[in-house]
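Structure ticket #2291
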Amino acid sequence: MSDTSLPPDAQAPNGAVPPGPLLMNLQYTKDLSFEVPGAPEIFATLREQPRIDLALDVQARPLQQGGNVFEVSLQIRADAQVPGQNGASQTAFIAELVYCGIFTLNVEPNLVEPLLLVECPRLLFPFARNILADVTRDGGFPPVLLTPIDFVALWQSRRGQSSADTMPPPVASA
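Resolution: structure written out below.
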């Protein structure tokens, strides 16, 4: 039996660099929305930094049946609230971003999920963070600067929820 694997710095026979375990083919903004429902009045009454509620989700889907090419989407929603009259909060802005990447994976099946839900979003995150900061700043507000996300913890949390959903309820003892 001969070893057909190439060292990391070697080239394939046709001169191309052999693919690694994870290849980002393309990245793009799939959806971007920015709303200021109370404009222009909100700008005249804004006295303090808005309170921002963030929601983040990661989704992955194969682009071909049984293949190794996937679309990974990083979905971010930022709702900014400011104190309004009578103590009720008022929406300053709503920003929604779906930032995607197309990835080719050349790994064992047991490594696909962690790569898709941890490593791929980790690679997309800096670009999505920049877009969100730019759109909020260009919208007339201080830029929303997201802190780094622990995608491992997010993935583990998601796995814990899905296994808890499939487990039978505990039996009460007397």
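Closing remark: The longest strand covers residues 89-105.
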